[in-house]
Design goal:
Largest sheet: none
Order of helices and strands: HHHHHH
Mean pLDDT: 92
Number of strands: 0
Distance between the termini: 17 Å
Strand content: under 5%
Structural class: mainly alpha
Shape: globular
Length: about 200
């Protein structure tokens, strides 16, 4: 908001398409199993052009917070089904698509999309929210060999936080901070446009 006597207006924003995919955002991070911390493994590849262009990864970064939550075998089986469904025909898993042996919820009419794969082949992903602190079912890593939800570092990258940004507290607190945050690259675009209007 602003005072009425100032000749300001809500800024116009033009769409920004960069052509990079989620896979390129995550491709330099080590594979992990559920419950593992891969921070000590460091980066497995050089930074992609996207990571360099956005300064998400810089030359002297140390990898931190690349740790995952544990998952039980039932959830991992569901994750595999969800990944296969997306990779084979770009279809999202509905809870009622699961075999009855994997369904444990009595309500089979609401929140049917509770298991969702982060699509590696798209230039965007579905909205990352603070609920990721409670469970990772809505943020399944796209790799079939890992069968897990996103790590803290992967989630922070999706929100455009640079790798040198450290979230204090336990894993759930870090996820909550990431999900509640305004993505830094988006905040920068808004701030630059506001600066332009104010000068």
């Amino acid at each position: 908001g602003w005072q009425e006597n100032h000749p300001l207006q809500f800024p116009d924003f033009s769409p920004h398409v960069n052509g990079y995919t989620v896979e390129q955002l995550l491709s330099d991070l080590s594979e992990l199993k559920p419950g593992e911390d891969g921070s000590s493994l460091g980066y497995k590849n050089q930074a992609t052009d996207y990571l360099k262009a956005t300064s998400i990864r810089k030359n002297n970064d140390l990898l931190t917070l690349h740790k995952t939550r544990p998952h039980n075998e039932r959830d991992r089986e569901i994750y595999g089904i969800a990944i296969d469904m997306w990779n084979s025909d770009k279809r999202r898993l509905k809870y009622t698509d699961l075999p009855k042996s994997l369904r444990t919820r009595p309500n089979e009419t609401g929140f049917l999309d509770r298991f969702k794969v982060v699509a590696a082949d798209l230039p965007y992903m579905h909205t990352l929210i603070a609920h990721i602190a409670r469970d990772g079912h809505y943020y399944i890593h796209p790799s079939k060999s890992q069968l897990r939800s996103l790590s803290v570092r992967e989630a922070s990258r999706i929100q455009s936080f640079p790798d040198d940004y450290f979230f204090e507290g336990p894993r759930s607190s870090a996820f909550r901070q990431i999900g509640n945050a305004v993505p830094p690259l988006m905040a920068e675009k808004i701030a630059n446009r506001m600066k332009y209007l104010l000068t």
